[in-house]
Here is the input.
Amino acid sequence: MLFYHLKSQEEKKAYEKIKKIIGGIEETIDENIEDEQKRKSIVVGLEKFNSTLQEFLEETQHMNFEDNELIRSKSASKNELMSLYGRQNNLRLKGTREFFELRDRAMKNTDDKQWKQIIKKINRITKS
Here is the structure.
């Protein structure tokens, strides 16, 4: 039971870290982009990415807490395990595509100075 508690604490820390990074990106967008349409375009990309990231974190938590028995089970079939990991992998790929879309939206809707400020914050996602 102690391991379960520690894992849960780690996930809470990861969630809080991501929340702080996303908030920092939004703040940087608001501070640097005056044109409302451009700002909105970037924020839409950020919201899509954040939504998928939250789904991914929830799926990871689901695997850790609800599907542990399946993972440990000697009788688990290859198809069951492939399905379990397939869901997570699909979200990972979706998140990657949305990260690149966010980056592309930022690139198209900023000048060089704005780009440097915003990409610095966006790239923090890849370091977390």
